[in-house]
Amino acid sequence: PETGCLSIVVLGASGDLAKKKTFPALYNLYRQGFLRKNEVHIFGYARTNITDDELRDRLRGYLPQGTGDAEYVSSFLQLIKYVSGSYDDPEGFQALDNAISEHEISKNSTEGSSRRLFYLALPPSVYPQVCKMIKNYSMNRSDLGGWTRIVVEKPFGRDLASAEELSSQIGELFEEPQIYRIDHYLGKELVQNLLVLRFANRFFLPLWNRDNIANIQIVFREDFGTEGRGGYFDQYGIIRDIIQNHLLQVLCLVAMEKPVSLKPEHIRDEKVKVLQSVVPIQDEEVVLGQYDGYKDDPTVPDISNTPTFATMILRIHNERWEGVPFILKAGKALNSRKAEIRVQFKSVPGDIFKCEKQGRNEFVIRLQPSEAMYMKLTVKKPGLEMSTVQSELDLSYRQRYQGLVIPEAYERLILDTIKGDQQHFVRRDELRAAWEIFTPILHRIDKGEYKSLPYKPGSRGPAEADELLERAGYVQTHGY
Ligand code: BG6
Protein backbone atom coordinates (compact mmCIF):
# COMPACT_ATOMS: atom_id res chain seq x y z
CA PRO A 1 0.00 0.00 0.00
CA GLU A 2 1.01 3.58 -0.62
CA THR A 3 2.27 5.48 2.35
CA GLY A 4 2.94 9.14 2.96
CA CYS A 5 0.80 12.04 3.67
CA LEU A 6 -2.89 11.78 2.85
CA SER A 7 -5.10 14.86 2.85
CA ILE A 8 -8.84 14.39 2.46
CA VAL A 9 -10.73 17.56 1.67
CA VAL A 10 -14.50 17.55 2.06
CA LEU A 11 -15.94 20.49 0.14
CA GLY A 12 -19.42 21.38 1.31
CA ALA A 13 -18.39 20.25 4.78
CA SER A 14 -21.45 21.57 6.56
CA GLY A 15 -23.96 20.22 4.06
CA ASP A 16 -26.27 17.23 4.45
CA LEU A 17 -24.33 14.73 2.39
CA ALA A 18 -21.08 15.49 4.19
CA LYS A 19 -22.61 15.24 7.64
CA LYS A 20 -24.74 12.19 7.01
CA LYS A 21 -22.53 10.15 4.71
CA THR A 22 -19.00 11.42 4.07
CA PHE A 23 -17.75 12.13 7.59
CA PRO A 24 -19.37 9.04 9.15
CA ALA A 25 -17.76 6.92 6.41
CA LEU A 26 -14.39 8.54 7.10
CA TYR A 27 -14.86 7.88 10.79
CA ASN A 28 -15.56 4.20 10.18
CA LEU A 29 -12.46 3.91 8.05
CA TYR A 30 -10.46 5.59 10.79
CA ARG A 31 -11.91 3.35 13.48
CA GLN A 32 -10.95 0.27 11.47
CA GLY A 33 -7.41 1.48 10.98
CA PHE A 34 -7.64 2.33 7.26
CA LEU A 35 -6.88 5.97 7.95
CA ARG A 36 -3.81 6.29 10.10
CA LYS A 37 -3.35 9.16 12.49
CA ASN A 38 0.27 9.71 11.52
CA GLU A 39 -0.58 10.06 7.83
CA VAL A 40 -4.00 11.53 7.39
CA HIS A 41 -5.53 14.91 7.83
CA ILE A 42 -9.08 15.85 6.95
CA PHE A 43 -10.04 19.33 5.83
CA GLY A 44 -13.57 20.64 5.78
CA TYR A 45 -14.16 23.49 3.33
CA ALA A 46 -17.34 25.54 3.07
CA ARG A 47 -18.58 29.11 2.95
CA THR A 48 -19.76 29.41 6.55
CA ASN A 49 -17.36 31.21 8.79
CA ILE A 50 -16.82 28.82 11.69
CA THR A 51 -13.86 27.52 13.68
CA ASP A 52 -12.38 24.02 13.68
CA ASP A 53 -14.14 23.29 16.95
CA GLU A 54 -17.48 24.51 15.70
CA LEU A 55 -17.29 22.15 12.75
CA ARG A 56 -16.24 19.31 15.04
CA ASP A 57 -19.23 19.99 17.30
CA ARG A 58 -21.58 19.99 14.33
CA LEU A 59 -20.25 16.65 13.14
CA ARG A 60 -20.15 14.89 16.51
CA GLY A 61 -23.90 14.20 16.54
CA TYR A 62 -23.66 12.33 13.23
CA LEU A 63 -20.93 9.98 14.40
CA PRO A 64 -21.59 6.67 16.18
CA GLN A 65 -22.23 6.78 19.90
CA GLY A 66 -21.74 3.07 20.61
CA THR A 67 -19.59 1.51 23.30
CA GLY A 68 -15.97 2.26 22.68
CA ASP A 69 -16.71 5.00 20.17
CA ALA A 70 -16.23 8.06 22.40
CA GLU A 71 -12.44 7.88 22.44
CA TYR A 72 -12.18 7.23 18.70
CA VAL A 73 -14.67 9.98 17.90
CA SER A 74 -12.58 12.50 19.84
CA SER A 75 -9.32 11.54 18.22
CA PHE A 76 -10.99 11.43 14.79
CA LEU A 77 -12.40 14.92 15.22
CA GLN A 78 -8.94 16.18 16.12
CA LEU A 79 -7.81 15.19 12.61
CA ILE A 80 -10.29 17.64 11.11
CA LYS A 81 -9.43 21.23 10.29
CA TYR A 82 -11.74 23.77 8.78
CA VAL A 83 -11.04 26.30 6.06
CA SER A 84 -13.74 28.72 5.00
CA GLY A 85 -14.06 30.27 1.59
CA SER A 86 -16.40 30.49 -1.32
CA TYR A 87 -16.40 28.11 -4.24
CA ASP A 88 -15.03 30.55 -6.79
CA ASP A 89 -12.57 32.37 -4.60
CA PRO A 90 -8.84 31.93 -5.32
CA GLU A 91 -8.05 33.18 -1.84
CA GLY A 92 -10.04 30.43 -0.17
CA PHE A 93 -8.41 27.73 -2.26
CA GLN A 94 -4.99 29.24 -1.70
CA ALA A 95 -5.69 29.12 2.04
CA LEU A 96 -6.74 25.50 1.64
CA ASP A 97 -3.51 24.75 -0.19
CA ASN A 98 -1.50 26.42 2.57
CA ALA A 99 -3.29 24.39 5.22
CA ILE A 100 -2.66 21.15 3.32
CA SER A 101 0.98 21.99 2.68
CA GLU A 102 1.47 22.82 6.34
CA HIS A 103 0.08 19.45 7.25
CA GLU A 104 2.30 17.74 4.71
CA ILE A 105 5.37 19.43 6.08
CA SER A 106 4.41 18.75 9.69
CA LYS A 107 3.92 15.08 8.94
CA ASN A 108 7.28 15.14 7.23
CA SER A 109 5.65 13.18 4.46
CA THR A 110 7.79 10.47 2.95
CA GLU A 111 10.09 12.28 0.61
CA GLY A 112 7.48 14.91 -0.03
CA SER A 113 4.89 12.72 -1.73
CA SER A 114 1.45 14.19 -1.34
CA ARG A 115 -1.89 12.44 -1.78
CA ARG A 116 -4.82 14.82 -2.05
CA LEU A 117 -8.38 13.63 -2.24
CA PHE A 118 -11.07 16.22 -2.91
CA TYR A 119 -14.61 15.07 -2.12
CA LEU A 120 -17.18 17.39 -3.68
CA ALA A 121 -20.21 17.13 -1.39
CA LEU A 122 -21.69 19.99 -3.40
CA PRO A 123 -24.36 20.64 -6.02
CA PRO A 124 -23.07 19.77 -9.51
CA SER A 125 -23.68 23.35 -10.68
CA VAL A 126 -20.49 24.37 -8.88
CA TYR A 127 -18.34 21.39 -9.94
CA PRO A 128 -16.66 23.15 -12.89
CA GLN A 129 -15.64 26.23 -10.93
CA VAL A 130 -14.53 24.20 -7.91
CA CYS A 131 -12.47 21.89 -10.13
CA LYS A 132 -10.86 24.93 -11.70
CA MET A 133 -9.99 26.33 -8.28
CA ILE A 134 -8.53 23.02 -7.15
CA LYS A 135 -6.53 22.71 -10.34
CA ASN A 136 -5.16 26.26 -10.09
CA TYR A 137 -4.57 26.55 -6.37
CA SER A 138 -4.88 23.41 -4.31
CA MET A 139 -3.79 20.30 -6.16
CA ASN A 140 -0.68 18.29 -5.51
CA ARG A 141 2.26 19.89 -7.25
CA SER A 142 4.98 17.84 -5.65
CA ASP A 143 7.31 16.37 -8.23
CA LEU A 144 8.21 13.76 -5.66
CA GLY A 145 5.12 11.67 -6.22
CA GLY A 146 1.59 11.38 -4.96
CA TRP A 147 -1.67 12.28 -6.65
CA THR A 148 -4.79 14.45 -6.78
CA ARG A 149 -8.20 12.78 -7.06
CA ILE A 150 -11.67 14.28 -7.30
CA VAL A 151 -14.82 12.54 -6.06
CA VAL A 152 -18.15 13.72 -7.46
CA GLU A 153 -21.74 12.68 -6.80
CA LYS A 154 -24.80 12.57 -8.97
CA PRO A 155 -26.82 14.21 -10.47
CA PHE A 156 -24.30 14.47 -13.29
CA GLY A 157 -26.47 16.64 -15.48
CA ARG A 158 -30.16 16.45 -16.34
CA ASP A 159 -29.84 14.89 -19.77
CA LEU A 160 -27.28 13.86 -22.34
CA ALA A 161 -26.27 17.37 -23.40
CA SER A 162 -25.89 18.80 -19.90
CA ALA A 163 -24.02 15.70 -18.68
CA GLU A 164 -21.64 15.90 -21.61
CA GLU A 165 -21.04 19.56 -20.96
CA LEU A 166 -20.25 18.86 -17.33
CA SER A 167 -17.97 15.97 -18.31
CA SER A 168 -16.08 18.15 -20.79
CA GLN A 169 -15.64 20.97 -18.31
CA ILE A 170 -14.21 18.64 -15.68
CA GLY A 171 -12.38 16.62 -18.33
CA GLU A 172 -10.44 19.68 -19.44
CA LEU A 173 -9.04 20.02 -15.95
CA PHE A 174 -8.51 16.45 -14.79
CA GLU A 175 -7.75 13.15 -16.45
CA GLU A 176 -10.32 10.34 -16.28
CA PRO A 177 -8.19 8.28 -13.83
CA GLN A 178 -8.37 11.21 -11.42
CA ILE A 179 -12.17 11.49 -11.52
CA TYR A 180 -14.28 9.24 -9.30
CA ARG A 181 -18.02 9.44 -10.08
CA ILE A 182 -19.82 7.85 -7.15
CA ASP A 183 -22.95 5.81 -7.56
CA HIS A 184 -23.36 4.54 -4.03
CA TYR A 185 -25.32 1.49 -5.19
CA LEU A 186 -22.04 0.15 -6.53
CA GLY A 187 -20.73 0.13 -2.97
CA LYS A 188 -23.49 -2.07 -1.59
CA GLU A 189 -22.42 -5.53 -0.47
CA LEU A 190 -24.81 -7.49 -2.62
CA VAL A 191 -24.18 -5.36 -5.68
CA GLN A 192 -20.47 -6.06 -5.27
CA ASN A 193 -21.37 -9.72 -4.99
CA LEU A 194 -23.05 -9.87 -8.40
CA LEU A 195 -19.99 -10.64 -10.48
CA VAL A 196 -18.82 -13.33 -8.07
CA LEU A 197 -22.24 -14.88 -8.06
CA ARG A 198 -22.56 -14.91 -11.80
CA PHE A 199 -19.08 -15.87 -12.85
CA ALA A 200 -17.85 -18.06 -9.99
CA ASN A 201 -20.81 -20.43 -9.85
CA ARG A 202 -21.31 -23.19 -12.33
CA PHE A 203 -25.03 -23.23 -11.42
CA PHE A 204 -25.69 -19.94 -13.05
CA LEU A 205 -23.46 -19.98 -16.11
CA PRO A 206 -25.66 -22.10 -18.39
CA LEU A 207 -28.94 -20.65 -17.14
CA TRP A 208 -28.25 -16.94 -17.31
CA ASN A 209 -29.76 -16.19 -20.70
CA ARG A 210 -32.89 -15.85 -22.81
CA ASP A 211 -33.34 -19.61 -23.10
CA ASN A 212 -34.04 -19.94 -19.40
CA ILE A 213 -34.91 -16.56 -17.98
CA ALA A 214 -38.39 -15.14 -18.55
CA ASN A 215 -37.88 -11.66 -17.08
CA ILE A 216 -35.75 -9.72 -14.63
CA GLN A 217 -37.01 -7.08 -12.23
CA ILE A 218 -34.83 -4.53 -10.51
CA VAL A 219 -36.88 -2.82 -7.86
CA PHE A 220 -36.38 0.08 -5.49
CA ARG A 221 -39.09 1.09 -3.03
CA GLU A 222 -39.11 3.59 -0.25
CA ASP A 223 -41.85 3.86 2.34
CA PHE A 224 -41.37 7.60 2.77
CA GLY A 225 -41.84 10.57 0.46
CA THR A 226 -39.47 13.34 -0.50
CA GLU A 227 -39.39 14.66 3.09
CA GLY A 228 -38.12 18.19 2.80
CA ARG A 229 -36.21 17.45 -0.42
CA GLY A 230 -39.24 18.21 -2.59
CA GLY A 231 -37.72 21.31 -4.18
CA TYR A 232 -34.62 19.39 -5.26
CA PHE A 233 -36.52 16.27 -6.20
CA ASP A 234 -39.03 18.12 -8.34
CA GLN A 235 -36.29 19.24 -10.72
CA TYR A 236 -35.20 15.66 -11.27
CA GLY A 237 -37.93 13.08 -10.61
CA ILE A 238 -37.56 9.39 -9.87
CA ILE A 239 -35.99 8.42 -13.22
CA ARG A 240 -33.04 10.77 -12.78
CA ASP A 241 -32.87 10.23 -9.02
CA ILE A 242 -32.86 6.43 -8.95
CA ILE A 243 -33.40 4.64 -12.26
CA GLN A 244 -30.91 6.26 -14.63
CA ASN A 245 -28.11 5.70 -12.14
CA HIS A 246 -28.65 3.19 -9.32
CA LEU A 247 -30.95 0.70 -11.05
CA LEU A 248 -29.21 0.96 -14.39
CA GLN A 249 -25.84 0.22 -12.77
CA VAL A 250 -27.34 -2.88 -11.20
CA LEU A 251 -28.79 -3.87 -14.57
CA CYS A 252 -25.34 -3.63 -16.14
CA LEU A 253 -23.86 -6.03 -13.61
CA VAL A 254 -26.76 -8.45 -14.02
CA ALA A 255 -26.67 -8.41 -17.81
CA MET A 256 -23.02 -7.92 -18.81
CA GLU A 257 -20.79 -10.55 -20.36
CA LYS A 258 -17.86 -11.96 -18.44
CA PRO A 259 -15.05 -9.41 -18.40
CA VAL A 260 -11.63 -10.44 -19.64
CA SER A 261 -10.29 -9.91 -16.10
CA LEU A 262 -11.20 -8.05 -12.95
CA LYS A 263 -9.32 -4.96 -14.06
CA PRO A 264 -11.61 -1.93 -13.69
CA GLU A 265 -11.29 -1.08 -17.39
CA HIS A 266 -12.28 -4.59 -18.45
CA ILE A 267 -15.35 -4.54 -16.22
CA ARG A 268 -16.40 -1.09 -17.33
CA ASP A 269 -15.91 -2.01 -20.99
CA GLU A 270 -18.50 -4.77 -20.57
CA LYS A 271 -20.93 -2.49 -18.76
CA VAL A 272 -20.77 0.04 -21.57
CA LYS A 273 -21.59 -2.67 -24.11
CA VAL A 274 -24.78 -3.54 -22.22
CA LEU A 275 -25.85 0.09 -22.17
CA GLN A 276 -25.15 0.48 -25.85
CA SER A 277 -27.32 -2.56 -26.59
CA VAL A 278 -30.43 -1.15 -24.91
CA VAL A 279 -33.09 -0.30 -27.49
CA PRO A 280 -35.29 2.81 -27.26
CA ILE A 281 -37.91 2.59 -24.53
CA GLN A 282 -41.44 2.11 -25.87
CA ASP A 283 -44.29 4.38 -24.75
CA GLU A 284 -46.55 1.50 -23.80
CA GLU A 285 -43.84 0.06 -21.60
CA VAL A 286 -43.72 2.98 -19.18
CA VAL A 287 -46.00 3.80 -16.24
CA LEU A 288 -45.38 6.93 -14.20
CA GLY A 289 -46.96 7.89 -10.91
CA GLN A 290 -47.00 10.69 -8.36
CA TYR A 291 -48.16 10.10 -4.81
CA ASP A 292 -51.05 12.08 -3.37
CA GLY A 293 -49.72 14.81 -1.12
CA TYR A 294 -46.40 15.24 -2.97
CA LYS A 295 -47.42 18.75 -4.00
CA ASP A 296 -48.23 19.74 -0.41
CA ASP A 297 -44.52 20.50 -0.05
CA PRO A 298 -44.39 24.31 -0.48
CA THR A 299 -41.23 24.01 -2.57
CA VAL A 300 -43.03 21.85 -5.16
CA PRO A 301 -45.09 23.74 -7.78
CA ASP A 302 -48.82 23.02 -7.75
CA ILE A 303 -48.79 21.97 -11.38
CA SER A 304 -45.90 19.54 -11.02
CA ASN A 305 -46.17 16.36 -13.10
CA THR A 306 -42.81 15.07 -11.82
CA PRO A 307 -42.93 11.32 -11.31
CA THR A 308 -42.20 9.94 -7.85
CA PHE A 309 -42.84 6.45 -9.21
CA ALA A 310 -41.93 4.73 -12.46
CA THR A 311 -42.06 1.25 -13.88
CA MET A 312 -40.45 0.81 -17.25
CA ILE A 313 -39.18 -1.99 -19.40
CA LEU A 314 -35.72 -1.97 -20.92
CA ARG A 315 -34.83 -4.37 -23.67
CA ILE A 316 -31.33 -5.46 -24.54
CA HIS A 317 -30.69 -6.29 -28.14
CA ASN A 318 -28.02 -8.97 -28.02
CA GLU A 319 -27.60 -12.69 -28.27
CA ARG A 320 -28.02 -13.33 -24.55
CA TRP A 321 -31.02 -11.16 -23.79
CA GLU A 322 -33.15 -10.66 -26.91
CA GLY A 323 -36.80 -10.92 -25.82
CA VAL A 324 -36.17 -10.78 -22.04
CA PRO A 325 -37.82 -7.76 -20.41
CA PHE A 326 -35.77 -5.97 -17.78
CA ILE A 327 -38.37 -4.33 -15.59
CA LEU A 328 -37.05 -1.33 -13.68
CA LYS A 329 -39.29 -0.08 -10.95
CA ALA A 330 -38.73 2.69 -8.40
CA GLY A 331 -41.01 4.61 -6.16
CA LYS A 332 -41.24 6.88 -3.16
CA ALA A 333 -43.99 6.72 -0.53
CA LEU A 334 -44.81 3.08 -1.23
CA ASN A 335 -45.81 0.25 1.10
CA SER A 336 -42.29 -0.89 2.00
CA ARG A 337 -38.59 -0.03 1.86
CA LYS A 338 -36.76 -2.54 -0.23
CA ALA A 339 -34.30 -2.92 -3.09
CA GLU A 340 -34.08 -6.24 -4.86
CA ILE A 341 -33.32 -8.07 -8.06
CA ARG A 342 -35.77 -10.77 -9.13
CA VAL A 343 -34.74 -13.17 -11.83
CA GLN A 344 -37.75 -15.17 -12.94
CA PHE A 345 -37.10 -18.35 -14.89
CA LYS A 346 -39.30 -19.80 -17.58
CA SER A 347 -41.74 -22.60 -16.79
CA VAL A 348 -40.66 -26.20 -17.01
CA PRO A 349 -41.60 -27.54 -20.42
CA GLY A 350 -44.01 -30.48 -20.33
CA ASP A 351 -44.85 -29.90 -16.66
CA ILE A 352 -46.24 -33.19 -15.28
CA PHE A 353 -46.99 -31.69 -11.85
CA LYS A 354 -49.18 -28.89 -13.13
CA CYS A 355 -47.36 -26.59 -10.73
CA GLU A 356 -46.96 -23.49 -12.89
CA LYS A 357 -49.81 -21.84 -11.03
CA GLN A 358 -47.87 -22.00 -7.77
CA GLY A 359 -45.13 -20.09 -9.40
CA ARG A 360 -41.93 -20.36 -11.32
CA ASN A 361 -38.36 -20.65 -10.19
CA GLU A 362 -37.15 -17.31 -9.09
CA PHE A 363 -33.79 -16.16 -7.84
CA VAL A 364 -34.04 -13.11 -5.61
CA ILE A 365 -31.16 -10.94 -4.46
CA ARG A 366 -32.25 -8.55 -1.74
CA LEU A 367 -29.87 -5.62 -1.63
CA GLN A 368 -31.58 -4.08 1.40
CA PRO A 369 -32.79 -4.18 4.08
CA SER A 370 -31.46 -7.46 5.52
CA GLU A 371 -29.20 -8.58 2.71
CA ALA A 372 -30.20 -11.98 1.39
CA MET A 373 -30.33 -14.24 -1.61
CA TYR A 374 -32.96 -16.86 -2.01
CA MET A 375 -34.09 -19.22 -4.65
CA LYS A 376 -37.74 -20.06 -5.01
CA LEU A 377 -38.21 -23.60 -6.10
CA THR A 378 -40.87 -26.23 -6.29
CA VAL A 379 -40.60 -29.15 -3.86
CA LYS A 380 -42.85 -31.98 -2.80
CA LYS A 381 -45.06 -30.78 -0.03
CA PRO A 382 -43.88 -32.76 2.99
CA GLY A 383 -46.42 -35.40 4.00
CA LEU A 384 -48.20 -38.45 2.70
CA GLU A 385 -49.76 -36.78 -0.32
CA MET A 386 -47.92 -36.25 -3.54
CA SER A 387 -48.39 -32.56 -4.08
CA THR A 388 -46.02 -29.69 -4.73
CA VAL A 389 -45.32 -26.41 -3.04
CA GLN A 390 -43.11 -23.38 -3.63
CA SER A 391 -40.35 -23.11 -1.08
CA GLU A 392 -37.03 -21.32 -0.66
CA LEU A 393 -33.35 -22.03 -0.47
CA ASP A 394 -32.38 -19.12 1.66
CA LEU A 395 -29.07 -17.38 2.32
CA SER A 396 -29.80 -14.61 4.76
CA TYR A 397 -26.65 -12.73 5.56
CA ARG A 398 -27.55 -11.93 9.13
CA GLN A 399 -27.91 -15.59 9.99
CA ARG A 400 -25.14 -16.98 7.86
CA TYR A 401 -22.52 -14.34 8.64
CA GLN A 402 -23.32 -13.59 12.25
CA GLY A 403 -20.99 -11.07 13.79
CA LEU A 404 -19.69 -9.81 10.47
CA VAL A 405 -20.34 -6.14 9.94
CA ILE A 406 -21.37 -5.21 6.42
CA PRO A 407 -19.63 -1.96 5.50
CA GLU A 408 -21.55 1.08 4.38
CA ALA A 409 -21.40 1.79 0.66
CA TYR A 410 -19.65 5.15 1.14
CA GLU A 411 -17.01 3.66 3.38
CA ARG A 412 -16.02 1.15 0.76
CA LEU A 413 -16.06 3.64 -2.09
CA ILE A 414 -13.94 6.21 -0.28
CA LEU A 415 -11.42 3.51 0.52
CA ASP A 416 -11.36 2.61 -3.19
CA THR A 417 -10.59 6.20 -4.11
CA ILE A 418 -7.67 6.22 -1.71
CA LYS A 419 -6.41 2.97 -3.22
CA GLY A 420 -6.96 4.27 -6.74
CA ASP A 421 -9.38 1.50 -7.72
CA GLN A 422 -12.01 2.76 -10.18
CA GLN A 423 -13.86 -0.51 -10.64
CA HIS A 424 -16.90 0.65 -8.70
CA PHE A 425 -17.09 4.12 -10.23
CA VAL A 426 -18.88 5.27 -13.34
CA ARG A 427 -16.68 5.99 -16.35
CA ARG A 428 -17.40 8.91 -18.63
CA ASP A 429 -18.56 6.79 -21.58
CA GLU A 430 -20.79 4.77 -19.25
CA LEU A 431 -22.42 7.95 -18.07
CA ARG A 432 -22.97 9.10 -21.63
CA ALA A 433 -24.52 5.76 -22.64
CA ALA A 434 -26.80 5.86 -19.58
CA TRP A 435 -28.08 9.31 -20.54
CA GLU A 436 -28.56 8.23 -24.13
CA ILE A 437 -31.07 5.64 -22.97
CA PHE A 438 -33.19 7.98 -20.88
CA THR A 439 -32.87 11.39 -22.50
CA PRO A 440 -35.63 10.98 -25.13
CA ILE A 441 -38.24 9.88 -22.62
CA LEU A 442 -37.13 12.44 -20.04
CA HIS A 443 -37.52 15.23 -22.56
CA ARG A 444 -41.01 14.06 -23.37
CA ILE A 445 -41.94 13.83 -19.68
CA ASP A 446 -40.58 17.36 -19.20
CA LYS A 447 -42.80 18.54 -22.06
CA GLY A 448 -45.81 17.00 -20.31
CA GLU A 449 -46.33 14.25 -22.89
CA TYR A 450 -46.60 11.59 -20.18
CA LYS A 451 -48.99 11.86 -17.31
CA SER A 452 -47.94 10.81 -13.82
CA LEU A 453 -50.83 8.77 -12.44
CA PRO A 454 -51.88 9.45 -8.86
CA TYR A 455 -51.33 6.82 -6.18
CA LYS A 456 -51.96 6.63 -2.45
CA PRO A 457 -48.95 6.94 -0.15
CA GLY A 458 -48.33 3.54 1.42
CA SER A 459 -49.71 1.67 -1.60
CA ARG A 460 -47.99 -0.45 -4.28
CA GLY A 461 -48.13 2.48 -6.70
CA PRO A 462 -50.54 2.85 -9.61
CA ALA A 463 -52.40 -0.36 -10.54
CA GLU A 464 -51.31 0.21 -14.16
CA ALA A 465 -47.76 -0.72 -13.12
CA ASP A 466 -48.87 -4.19 -12.01
CA GLU A 467 -50.72 -4.58 -15.28
CA LEU A 468 -47.54 -3.71 -17.15
CA LEU A 469 -45.67 -6.33 -15.14
CA GLU A 470 -48.24 -8.93 -16.09
CA ARG A 471 -48.05 -7.94 -19.74
CA ALA A 472 -44.29 -8.35 -19.54
CA GLY A 473 -44.92 -11.95 -18.54
CA TYR A 474 -44.18 -11.78 -14.84
CA VAL A 475 -46.01 -14.55 -12.96
CA GLN A 476 -46.79 -13.97 -9.27
CA THR A 477 -45.66 -16.80 -7.02
CA HIS A 478 -47.51 -18.18 -4.04
CA GLY A 479 -45.25 -19.53 -1.33
CA TYR A 480 -45.96 -22.08 1.36
C1 BG6 B 1 -30.18 8.69 -3.39
C2 BG6 B 1 -31.45 9.36 -3.83
O1 BG6 B 1 -29.26 8.66 -4.43
O2 BG6 B 1 -30.48 7.38 -2.97
C3 BG6 B 1 -32.49 9.35 -2.73
O3 BG6 B 1 -31.17 10.71 -4.21
C4 BG6 B 1 -32.69 7.96 -2.19
O4 BG6 B 1 -33.71 9.88 -3.20
C5 BG6 B 1 -31.35 7.29 -1.88
O5 BG6 B 1 -33.48 8.06 -1.02
C6 BG6 B 1 -31.54 5.82 -1.54
O6 BG6 B 1 -30.34 5.26 -1.11
P1 BG6 B 1 -30.37 3.95 -0.21
O7 BG6 B 1 -28.93 3.59 -0.07
O8 BG6 B 1 -31.03 4.32 1.08
O9 BG6 B 1 -31.18 2.94 -0.95
From TrEMBL:
It catalyses: D-glucose 6-phosphate + NADP(+) = 6-phospho-D-glucono-1,5-lactone + NADPH + H(+). GO terms for molecular function: glucose-6-phosphate dehydrogenase activity. It comes from the Eukaryota. Its main location: cytoplasm. Residues 195-474 form the Glucose-6-phosphate dehydrogenase C-terminal domain. Coiled coil: none annotated. GO terms for cellular component: cytoplasm. It comes from Penstemon smallii. This is Glucose-6-phosphate 1-dehydrogenase. It is found in: Cytoplasm. Pathway: Carbohydrate degradation; pentose phosphate pathway; D-ribulose 5-phosphate from D-glucose 6-phosphate (oxidative stage): step 1/3.
